[in-house]
Design a protein that fits this description.
4 strands; binds arginine; Ribonucleotide Reductase Protein R1, domain 1; 18 helices; Fumarase C, Chain A, domain 2; mainly alpha; single chain; Fumarase C, Chain B, domain 1; 3 domains; about 450 residues
Length: about 450
């Protein structure tokens, strides 16, 4: 057979307008899928030979050529060519240059439609694993910070008003829970991405006796797709990844926001290390929390990328449409944004200086013990609603006097209820947190237990 016959013709050689090519080429970014594409091609070629669909010798050359191409790409020596449009054609054309005619057998029983769907699933599975591992590292940093500051008491907030005292560790464990749900969402996404499209061909299946299970197991997929049309048209796994990432970034943004607030002079609960702050060009006193601000700011990109994929998919007729190529850049951007944000926050947490004395005095100075005073009256027999009213009046009086609750005398307390006795003066932030001894509460014994269980959860999953 003359070599000419098997040559991969570039779309421009087939007459594609230069401007159309420029507009449609994806090689500038889909080259990032080279490992997944090569792995899928290797599994496919092995299967084709095993099934007697292509000669064993040819399969052998294909495998060797593909391995060489992978090395070329990794060494930065691969001659990427825009006129070859995407990663699939670039690799196949290079294979042709390397091994000649046999390269033309690789695309037997396959289409770029099931090929790209396979590459994307492999990519998303890897991204889920990376996300889960990075989340685990941030969770570990949260536990380390919580354990190093186990006794710190801070005001807990609602409506950003000081509400009730809580342990700082308890507050950090709230983020641990949020991140746990995030990793659950990535694992859930992974479980549905875990399905092999190859064998679907362009959309209808292929007229060869394939062993799809073999390809699946070579690539680490646990099952094969059940419908060839869905297999090439589906990008739900990209939507799910984007949705999980958007929720995770939302959580990181909340954490970042608290770091920004707490490191302000107004709060003064944290001091940021110079290594994670920037100064101002004109205000010499500044330590700006740029990393936390950027983490907060980049969340918008993840939301935008989720909306981009949902909108791209909306209204697409079955099966493959070129619109689907637009799944890549937003996904890559989200993966990079998410992993980088997790990484930098994991590095930032251990460098924070926790100012526990400031936290505790903020909790003590405020009226954060008002609920405890009401609960005190309840324990003496007063219905809660009535106690709430009495303490509201008491607090209004104290505010008018410019006093904190601990600055009031027993005589002043008793003006609001005769049930107050000397022991009300013993109420303090420590007693307040200790009293919240319910499962999930902020009592020190509960938090110690929660920290232990959280460690175990991380260990079990590792
Ligand atoms: N670059 C394409 C994509 O990302 C690969 C599949 C092309 N298939 C096709 N029929 N043109 O979707």
């Amino acid at each position: 057979m003359p070599e000419q016959k098997d040559r991969i013709e570039s779309p421009t050689a087939r007459g594609l307008d230069e401007r159309a090519l420029k507009y449609s080429a994806s090689i500038a970014y889909d080259r990032r899928l080279y490992r997944h594409d090569i792995a899928a091609s290797i599994a496919h070629a092995r299967m084709l030979a095993k099934q007697g669909i292509i000669p064993g010798d040819d399969a052998h050359s294909i495998l060797r050529g593909l391995e060489e191409i992978r090395e070329e790409i990794e060494r930065g020596e691969f001659p990427f060519r825009e006129e070859l449009e995407d990663i699939h054609l670039n690799i196949e054309a290079r294979l042709q240059e390397k091994i000649g005619e046999a390269a033309g057998r690789l695309h037997t029983a396959r289409s770029r439609n099931d090929q790209i769907a396979t590459d994307m699933r492999l990519f998303v599975i890897e991204a889920c694993d990376d996300a889960v591992a990075s989340i685990r590292r941030l969770q570990t940093a949260l536990l380390d910070l919580a354990e190093a500051n186990q006794n710190a008491v801070m005001p807990g907030y609602t409506h950003l008003q000081r509400a009730q005292p809580v342990l700082f560790a308890h507050h950090l464990l709230a983020y641990f829970e949020m991140l746990d749900r995030d990793s659950g969402r990535f694992l859930d996404c992974r479980s549905r991405a875990d399905e092999l499209p190859l064998g679907a061909g362009a959309l209808a299946g292929v007229p060869y006796r394939l062993d799809r299970e073999f390809v699946a197991s070579e690539l680490g997929f646990s099952r094969v797709s059940r419908n060839s049309i869905d297999a090439v048209a589906d990008r739900d796994f990209v939507v799910e990844f984007q949705a999980a990432a958007a929720a995770a970034m939302m959580h990181l943004s909340r954490l970042a926001e608290e770091i920004v607030l707490w490191s302000s002079d107004e709060f003064g609960f944290l001091r940021l290390p110079v290594t994670f702050t920037t100064g101002s060009s004109i205000m010499p006193q500044k330590r700006n929390p740029d990393v936390a601000e950027l983490a907060r700011g980049r969340t918008g990109r993840a939301y935008g990328n989720l909306i981009a994929i949902l909108t791209m998919l909306k209204g697409l007729p079955l099966a493959y449409n070129r619109d689907l190529q637009e799944d890549k850049q937003p996904l890559f951007d989200t993966v990079d944004t998410l992993l980088a944000t997790l990484e930098v926050l994991t590095a930032l947490l251990p460098a924070l200086e926790v100012r526990s004395e400031r936290m505790e005095s903020a909790a003590a100075e405020s009226y954060a013990l008002a609920t405890d005073v009401a609960d005190y009256l309840v324990r003496k027999g007063m219905p809660f609603r009535e106690a709430h009213q009495a303490v509201a009046d008491l607090v209004r009086y104290a505010e008018g006097e410019g006093k904190s609750l601990s600055g009031l005398s027993l005589e002043e307390y008793r003006r609001y209820s005769p049930l107050f006795e000397h022991d009300v003066l013993a109420l303090d932030v420590r007693a307040s947190v200790a009293a919240r001894d319910v499962p999930g509460g902020t009592a020190p014994s509960r938090v110690t237990e929660a920290l232990k269980l959280a460690r175990e959860r991380l260990r079990d999953e590792a």
